[in-house]
Write a structure and sequence with these properties.
- The protein is of the alpha+beta class and about 475 residues long.
- The protein has helices at about 10-20, 50-65, 115-125, 140-150, 155-160, 195, 230-235, 240-245, 255-265, 290-305, 315-325, 330-335, 350-365, 390-410, 430-435, 435-450, and strands spanning about 25, 45, 70, 90, 100-105, 110, 130, 165-170, 175-180, 205-215, 215, 220-230, 250-255, 275-285, 310, 340-345, 370-375, 380-385.
- Helix 9 (about 255-265) packs across helix 12 (about 330-335) and helix 15 packs across helix 16.
- It is globular and about 70 Å long.
- The two termini are about 35 Å apart.
- Mean pLDDT is about 95; it is low at about 465-475.
Length: about 475
């Protein structure tokens, strides 16, 4: 089947659904990229719905006319998942940004898809509860986070986005509005379609509302920055901390090299220059004595295993400063080179040093700068490739070779392709080689059940078969 391009007749129909001021036609370049801008494709038209019913009408019309549909939040993704490869209709969720229900009795907050993480934090700032997932990009929408099951920096103790969504409202491709999950804590009532849709990157349905799980806001937060001679030494301490029965809120790692990129970007010195690698360890809770005891035990383990003098975050200003640095690392890397690409593989925690060995090998072999940082407590590494002075063609060839070898390494170590950024369009060509034809076939059957005409976010995550078979076939991974 060939997808239809949007015509003036289609624009008139969409205008009748959402009003003229919420239809952008022709679509502007604002809609043709994500944060990396490595993949660019312009939709024919962008629409900005405000209600579930408007989303339903858009999908119903698109499905009947075989027009592809892509959903956009704040475009903070990195893998091209929100880029409309087949053009068509871009559903811009920017105006679906309201709080629908705050329920402290059931510990939930219900919001629309376009509500940002920053908005959630601000709404709850004067309340005794918090939404705990903490991705670095606070301007990302909650719908976008759900689309990739973002993890963030508190996943060690609290889990990823999926664990903090009680229920969703989703509009199906035929325009029906469905509710999956609820405010209840438990649910053992058949297939959990909520969790199937979360992480599906907009390929199965359009999430419009989310019931978020809240927890009592921790009253005690203690952080410490621990320098080591190098990153591998730092990460070797992580399994020892966890094996001791300690559960930090977060365990982040980064290198001196990555910090230097941040210093160049921020035009200020980092708070410590003694280490070649760092762990940022945080504990939280409601009993100051217990939280301090756990931090002290973790620090003792670190000192026993080569830690240099730690930098204790003695006041809120220090805490804010160090976490702001961590949150800005990606931006710093991106702003200090001509372009970047990224792999966010996840491996068992004990295997992180082997991945870092491979990164060092590839950095030397390919002559590409590969700064990296990540979540040492859950095995998720963010490995970047800087374009610097390479031509587009040279960089593309090098990136492909690097990606193949990093994926081969992750697969051999029992890891996964992505910990939180998703597969999108950029990594779809590698998916079948990584997971095999049998798994892809199961996913294809799921896709067919939800979206028979394959109009929802085509060419994303895994290759499709049948009338809409994709042209880009899977690439083999390097052994």
């Amino acid at each position: 089947m060939t997808y239809a391009r949007v015509t003036e007749t289609d624009v008139k129909a969409l205008t009748d659904i959402v009003t003229a001021e919420r239809v952008i036609y022709p679509a502007t370049v604002h809609y043709d990229h994500d944060q990396f801008k490595q993949v660019r494709s312009l939709p024919d038209v962008a629409v900005q719905p405000e209600t579930n019913e408007e989303v339903a009408a858009i999908l119903r019309y698109a499905n009947e006319h075989l027009i592809p549909v892509t959903v956009r939040g704040n475009a903070t993704g990195l893998m091209g998942a929100n880029v409309p490869i087949e053009h068509g209709i871009d559903i811009d969720m920017i105006k679906m940004n309201k709080v629908l229900d705050y329920d402290p009795d059931d510990l939930t907050l219900t919001v629309q898809n376009g509500f940002r993480i920053r908005d959630i934090n601000e709404f709850l700032a004067d309340k005794p509860f918090t939404y705990i997932p903490a991705p670095a990009m606070k301007w990302a929408t909650i719908g976008g986070n759900a689309s990739t099951n973002a993890g963030g920096m508190r996943a060690v103790k609290y889990g990823t986005t999926r664990e903090h969504i009680r229920g969703i409202t989703a509009v199906m491709v035929d325009g029906t509005i469905q509710h999956f999950g609820s405010k209840t804590v438990k649910n053992s009532s058949g297939y959990d379609l909520k969790d199937v849709i979360i992480g599906s990157e907009g390929t199965l349905a359009v999430i419009t509302e989310l019931i978020l799980r809240l927890i009592p806001r921790p009253t005690v937060n203690l952080d410490v920055l621990v320098p080591f001679v190098d990153v591998k030494k730092a990460i070797s301490v992580v399994p020892k901390i966890l094996r001791a029965g300690l559960v930090p809120t977060g365990l982040e790692f980064f290198s001196r090299e990555t910090v230097e990129y941040w210093e160049s970007y921020a035009h200020q010195p980092f708070m410590d220059h003694t280490g070649g690698g760092y762990l940022l360890i945080t504990f939280d809770g409601h009993d100051g004595t217990v939280v301090q005891r756990d931090l002290d035990r973790a620090m003792q383990i670190a000192r026993d295993n080569g830690a240099l003098a730690p930098v204790l975050m003695g006041d809120e200003a220090h805490r804010v400063a160090v976490w702001e640095t961590r949150n800005q690392l990606l931006t710093a890397i991106q702003q200090t080179t001509t372009a970047i690409d990224e792999v966010d593989i996840v491996v068992p925690i004990s295997q992180i040093p082997k991945v870092l060995d491979k990164v060092a090998e590839l950095q030397e072999k390919e002559k590409v700068s590969m700064p990296n940082f990540g979540h040492a407590g859950d095995g998720n590494l963010h490995i970047y490739m800087r374009k610097d002075d390479y031509s587009d063609e040279e960089f593309a060839v090098k990136v492909d070779r690097i990606i193949r070898q990093l994926y081969s390494t992750a697969k051999a170590l029992g890891g996964e392709m992505s910990g939180e950024h998703g597969i999108g369009f950029a990594r779809e060509p590698y998916f079948e080689a990584y997971y095999g034809k049998d798994k892809v076939r199961i996913l294809q059957l799921v896709k067919d059940a939800f979206d028979p005409n394959h109009i929802l976010n085509p060419h994303k995550v895994f290759p499709m078969v049948g009338a809409n078979k994709q042209a880009n076939r899977p690439l083999e991974l390097d052994s």
